[in-house]
Design brief:
143 residues; Nucleoside Triphosphate Pyrophosphohydrolase; 4-stranded antiparallel sheet; 21% helix; globular
């Protein structure tokens, strides 16, 4: 996440899906063998958004169920507040068609999934007061 004019902003990504058109979501991914949640989050954010990040603090988790190829999958996604330390959104991988910074208050109408909209609202409440320095940066990410 980053602050612009005293307001928190976060990174979201968009992709086309056959079943539901275009989705806007937070970056997230699957751990590789031997990888911690934190390592997964940092790697996935860099791959999916092009940003190099460091974890500021753990945040929340979301649990949900979906069906893939006829199999019901139960998934838990662990989120972290992160500080961008480099990179470029133009370097995102193929998983997102588009990646962009948006103000937290835009997430309520832009993010596709209610669980993520609620998560960002909670994060926004927590981060409503900017740090004492001028505009600083943080990133929101998931594993």
């Amino acid at each position: 996440m980053r602050y612009e004019s005293g307001r928190p902003w976060l990174v979201v990504g968009s992709r086309r899906r056959e079943r539901d058109g275009r989705t806007w979501t937070l970056p997230k991914g699957t751990p590789e063998p031997g990888e911690s949640r934190e390592q997964t989050a940092v790697r996935e954010v860099e791959e999916e958004t092009g940003l190099k990040v460091r974890i500021h603090s753990p945040f929340d988790s979301i649990e949900y169920t979906f069906v893939q190829s006829g199999t019901r999958i139960n998934k838990t996604v662990h989120y972290f507040l992160m500080d961008p330390i480099g990179g470029d959104l133009a370097r995102h991988d193929h998983e997102f068609d588009e990646v962009r910074w948006i103000p937290f208050d835009s997430a309520a109408t832009m993010l596709t999934f209610e669980t993520e909209r609620e998560l960002v609202a909670r994060a926004g409440e927590r981060l409503a007061t900017p740090p004492p320095a001028a505009d600083s940066t943080r990133a929101e990410a998931a594993t």
